[in-house]
Design goal:
There is one protein chain. With about 260 residues, the protein is an alpha/beta fold. Helix content is about 50%, strand content about 15%. It is built from 8 helices and 7 strands; from the N terminus they run βαβαβαβαβαβαααβ. α1 packs parallel to α2. The radius of gyration is 18 Å and the shape is globular. The two termini are about 25 Å apart.
Length: about 260
């Protein structure tokens, strides 16, 4: 299937590892030009080499702290100076720390909002004018299945990603007439460093080994295994493509069937 992504300009946030890197590689393999960003310069440089090897397009990597507005401004300024516009924006950021409500300070809540909600808003503000002018654009937000079925012990993530979902659904209504779609991709239990952190946290809290934790997760997944980042990236690339032009304002789970809701 030709996704029509050749020479499209794609900005993938938090793309030095995990789901972000997998998405960047997928878009590169489809012939897109890809902008990478992350805080760690060394990891970002390594990721850039992997993305360059995945496809023929140009790759730009910009060290960026997604919790800092000035850093995001620098990212979008350099991106627009280099490419002139962005066709596809993939909003992604590391998840907030686990814990229950009373374990998180006011500062922790503010940090979660800045990283997971405000970064998406700021990036969208920067790219939407160009998308409207060209009457074509895709915004894909990496959220979580916790939006449909909140995960115990992840109150920060559950709350802030729900806010992203509400914003995205409303924005989809506002920009649809310009040929722009706004959708959310919801990863389930997928083999990333984030999942490793959650496994370690549960292991320490419950006195179980990481292997036992993973077996518990797999037992409630109809596919009977954890997901791989490339499986998630395939959906994101599709939602960012020409072929997904009539899919707008939805949240799609990539979780092996784990989420039991009807919609």
């Amino acid at each position: 299937m030709d996704l029509g992504l050749t020479d499209r300009v794609v900005l993938v946030a938090a793309s030095s590892k995990g789901l972000g890197l997998a998405c960047a590689e997928e878009f590169a393999a489809e012939g897109a030009h890809v902008i990478l960003c992350a805080r760690g310069a060394d990891a970002l440089a390594t990721a850039a080499k992997a993305v360059e090897a995945a496809g023929p397009g140009e790759v730009l990597s910009v060290p960026t702290d997604l919790a800092d507005a000035a850093s995001i401004d620098a990212l979008t300024t350099e991106t627009l100076q280099r490419f002139g516009h962005v066709d596809v924006l993939v909003n992604n950021a590391g998840g907030p720390p686990p814990g229950k409500f009373e374990e998180h300070s006011t500062e922790a809540w503010g940090a979660a909002v800045r990283l997971n909600l405000e970064s998406a808003l700021q990036l969208a503000r920067a790219v939407l004018p160009g998308m409207k002018e060209r009457r074509w654009g895709r915004i894909v937000n990496v959220t979580s299945v916790a939006v449909k079925e909140p995960v115990d012990g992840l109150i920060l993530s559950n709350s802030v990603r729900a806010a992203v979902t509400g914003w995205a659904r409303t924005l989809a209504n506002e920009v649809g007439e310009f040929g722009i779609t706004v959708n959310n991709a919801m990863p389930g239990f997928t083999r990333t460093e984030r999942l490793d952190q959650l496994a370690q946290s549960q292991s320490a809290a419950r006195g179980l080994s990481r292997e036992e934790i993973e077996k518990e997760w797999e037992a409630v997944i109809p596919a009977a295994r954890l997901g791989e980042p490339r499986e998630f990236a395939a959906l994101v690339a599709f939602l960012g493509s020409d072929r997904a032009s009539y899919i707008n304002g939805v949240s799609i789970a990539v979780d092996g069937g784990r989420t039991r809701t009807l919609l």
